[in-house]
Amino acid sequence: MALSRKHSQNQQRGFTLLEVLIAVTITAVIGLGVWQVISGVVTSRDRVNELSEQFDGLQRAMLLMERDLMQVVNRPARDIYGDFQPALSSREEDFSLLLTRQGWRNPLGIRRSGLQRVGWEYTGSELRRRYWPMVDQGQEDDSRDVLLLEDVKSLEVRFLDSNRSWQSEWPTDEVMAGLTSGSRPDIPLPLGIEVTFEHERFGTLVRTFALPDFDPAIAQGVLNQVNEAASEADEEDSEEASEEQSDADSGVTEQGG
Among 53, 89, 123, 128, which one has the highest count of C-beta atoms within 10 angstroms of its own C-beta? Predict the structure, then answer.
C-alpha cells in the first residue's frame, strides 16, 4: 500500500521552479531577438521611404527648374504699381530668381495666356516655387506657392553674360544703371545659368542650364517669311480656283451652243 502511494506521487510530479525560469528566459531571449529583427526591418523601411521621398522631391525640383529655364522668354512684366520689371531677374528681395516662361499647358482650354510668371524662393531651409496666372500683376495677389524641397542649407545662382563671364546678379549693375524709369526694359537674356545649392542629405549639387539663344530680329524675319509663303500659297490657290471656274464656265457655254 505504501509502495503504491509513493509511485502515484512520482507520476504527479511537475516542473520545478528552476526549469520554469529557464523556459521563460529562453522564450524571452527568442522574443527579444525576433523583436530586434522586426524593428530593424521597419526602421530600414522607414529610412528608405524617407530617402525616396527626399530624392523624389529633389528630382521634381530640378525638373521644374529645368522646364522654367528652358522655356524662358524675354517678356518683361509689370508689377502691382504698373512699372516694368525685367523678364529675368535676381534682384527681387523675396526671390532668388524671377522669370517669364512660355509653354504653360492648358488641358482644360481656359481662356488665358500660355505665358507664366514664376519666382523661385529660398527661405533659409526650404526651396519654394511661386507662380502667377497673369504675367502682369494686378492689385490682388493671386499667386500660388508650392513647397518643392526641404533641408536646403544654401542656394546660389550665377549668370553667364555675353562675354563668357559669370555674374552674381542679373541684370548687371551696368545694365541697371542704364535703365530709364517707366520705360520697357530691353535686356538680353544671359547665355547660361548655374544653380548651386547645398542639401543636408545630398550635399552640394550644381546644375548648369544653357538658355535658349533667341534673337528677336531673326525670329521676326522667320515669321515674315512664313507669312509671305502663306500669302503666296493663298494667291496660287485663288488663281487655280479661278482657272477651274473659267474652264467650267467655258464647258457649259460649249455644251449650250
Answer: 89
Tell me the C-alpha distance between 250 and 245, whole Å: 9
Residue 122's contacts (CB-CB under 8 Å, 6 or more residues apart) are 96, 128, 152, 155, 197
Query: Given this model, what pLDDT does residue 156 score?
Result: 94
Q: Is the dihedral of CA 61, 64, 68, 69 positive or negative?
A: positive
Q: How far apart are CA 52 and CA 49, in angstroms?
A: 5
The domain containing residue 184 runs over which residues? 59-217
The grid cell for 61 is 525640383
Instruction: Please report whether residue 51 resides in a domain.
Output: no
- The answer, yes or no, to whether residue 248 has pLDDT greater than 80, is no
* Cell numbers found for residue 203: 550635399
- Three-class DSSP category at 118: strand
For residue 152, give the nearest of 58, 23, 46 by alpha carbon.
58
List, for residues 45-83, the tens digit of each pLDDT value: 778 788 788 888 888 999 999 999 999 998 889 888 888
Structural domain count, the chain:
1
DSSP single-letter state for residue 40: H
Q: What CATH number has the domain bearing residue 143?
A: 3.10.610.10
